[in-house]
Records
---
Amino acid sequence: MAFAHVSVMTAEVMHFLRPGPHRRYLDGTLGGGGHAEQILIQSSPDGQVLGLDWDDEAIVAAQERLSRFGKRLAVRQASFAAAKEVLADLSWQLIDGAVLDLGVSSHQLDSAERGFSFRGGGRLDMRMDRRQALDAREIVNTFSASELQRIFREYGEEPQARRIAAAIVAARNAKAIQSTEELAGIVARAKGSRRREHHPATQTFQALRIAVNQELQQLQQFLEHGYELLKPGGRMAIISFHSLEDRLVKNAFRKWDRECLCPPRTPRCNCGWSCKVKLLTKRPVLPSAQEIAVNPRARSAKLRAVERI
Ligand SMILES: C[S@@+](CC[C@H](N)C(=O)[O-])C[C@H]1O[C@@H](n2cnc3c(N)ncnc32)[C@H](O)[C@@H]1O
C-alpha cells in the first residue's frame, strides 16, 4: 500500500521555522516526510534535516520520497524523546529548528493490519514502533477493569469508561478479543444506540493508542529539556491534535518563557531558573478553513511555537 499522508499546516510550520541554508533541523515525527521535504527545499543548497520516526514503514517511505536530498537528510528509527542522544550521535550539537507533528499518520490509520482504526477489521495492534512488545491486544485482554477504565477516562476523556471496561472484561472472559472490529462492536453495544457525530468507539480507540505508545509520556519527556536542543534564535513548532497533548505543550512553553519558577511571594528568587524562550504564539495557531476543507484531518490541529533566547 502506497504511503499516503497529507501534511498539516506546512505553510505555518515554515513561517515559524524560517528554514535557511547552512542550518540544521530536527523533524521528530517524520511520517510521510512532507514537513521535512519543505524544510530541505527552503534550506537549499546545504541545510540538513534529522528525521525521526518510530514507525519502520514511515522511515522507508520518507527515505524514498526524500532520496533526492542525499546526505542532507539523516533518518533514524527512534522516538523524539531520544532526540538529544541521536543528535549527539550525529555530532550535531545544537540545531536551528525543530518540528513535532504529533499523533498518527493517515497511513497508519488507513492500514487495517496496523490495527489503529475501528474500520477495516485488522488485528488489534496500534504499535507505532513494531519492535515494541506491548500492543493493544495485550492491554485489552490482560489489563484489569480499573486500569482499562482509567485509560479510557484519562486518554479518551470517555464519559462511559466504566461501562466500556466492564463490557470488555465480560467479552474477553468468553473469548479473547482479537480484532479492531470485535472491539468496536463491544464498545458500540456498551454505549447504546444514541445517534452520534462520531463512531462510538472513537475515544476508546484514541485512548488505547495513546496507552500502547505511551504518547503523553514521550511528549512530556521531550518537553522536559526540549529547549536545550536549540541554538539561540533557534525555533520549535509543535502541532498537537487533542487537548491532552496541547495542554502539555502549552504548559511547557509557558514554563520555558518564565523568568523564575519560585512560588509566589518568595522574598528572594532561589530557583536558579531563567527564561529560556520567547513565545511566538500566545494562542495556538489553527489551520485555515481552506486547509480543513481539503484535509479534514487538519480540523483539530493546534500549532504552538517558541524561539530560544
Ligand atoms: C502526523 S504524522 C507526521 C507527518 C509528517 N509531519 C508529514 O508531514 O508527513 C506523525 C508521525 O509521528 C510518528 N510518531 C508519533 N510519536 C512518535 C514518537 N514519540 N517518536 C517518533 N515518532 C513518533 C508516527 O509514527 C507518525 O509517523
---
Amino acid sequence: MTGRDDQDDSTPENYFGASVAGRYDEAHTGMFDPGVVDPAVDFLAELAGDGAALELGIGTGRIALPLARRGVRVHGIELSTAMVEQLRAKPGADALEVTIGDFATTTVDGVFSLAYLVFNTINNLTTQDAQVACFRNVAAHLGPGGCFVIEVGVPALRRLPYGETFHAFNLSEMHVGIDEYDVANQGLVSHHYTAVGGTFERRSIPFRYVWPSELDLMARLAGMTLRERWSSWQREPFDSESRKHISVWETLL
Ligand SMILES: C[S@@+](CC[C@H](N)C(=O)[O-])C[C@H]1O[C@@H](n2cnc3c(N)ncnc32)[C@H](O)[C@@H]1O
C-alpha cells in the first residue's frame, strides 16, 4: 500500500494518503506529547523572532499550530492533500497558509527568517539531488541571516553487521517495524506491519539517510553555513553516541 493520491508523474510519490493521514496523529501520539512538542516550538520560535517561518512537510500541523499560537506567521509546503485536510479540521488552522507541492522545488511568496524540516522528513527525499535542491529552495526563501533547521536521525549503521540488511526497530502486538538498508545507495525502506481490524496492514516507505557532514556540504552549496548542532531541542551536546541531531544553518548577513 502506498497511499498515493492526487498527483502527476513529475511529483514525488505520496506515502501519506487518506488512510495514513486519518490515523497519523493517533499513530504518533508520543510525538504530539507536550514534552516533545514544546521544546521544539521554543527553539523554533526563538529563531523565527519577528519574522515568518516556512515548514517543509507541515503534515497535520503538529509543530506549525503551536508555533502559530506563539504569534509566529507560519506557511507550510505539503505534498499530501489528505494530511492538509486533517490539519484544516483543527482549531487555529486558519492562521496557517499551506501550499500543496514538493518542498524540494515548490516556491511560495514571502521572505522568511526561519525554515524548518523536522521528524526525519529530509529523508523522504530519496535522492541526493532532491536533498540538494531542497537546501537551494530553502536558501531562496530566507532573508539575510535567516536559519534553516533540520531534525533528523544519525544513520544507525552501527546496528547493522556486515552482510545484514534488515534491522527490526519495533516488535509489539500492534506493530512490527523493520528497516531494510541498501548501504551502497544510502537507501532505507521502513516496513511497517500494523494491526488493523484483526489483520496486519503492510506499509513500506523509502528513505535516503544522510550524514550530518553531508548536510553541511549541501548547506554550503546553497550558500549557508552551520551555526549550531545539538542532540536535542533542549540544546544537549551532539557527540559520537547521539542518535539524532538538530542542526541550524544560516544564510550570510
Ligand atoms: C513524518 S511527516 C511529518 C509531518 C509534520 N512535520 C510533523 O512533524 O508531524 C512527513 C510529512 O512530509 C510530507 N512530505 C514528504 N515528502 C514531501 C515532499 N517531497 N514535499 C512535500 N511534503 C512532503 C508528508 O506528506 C508528511 O506530511
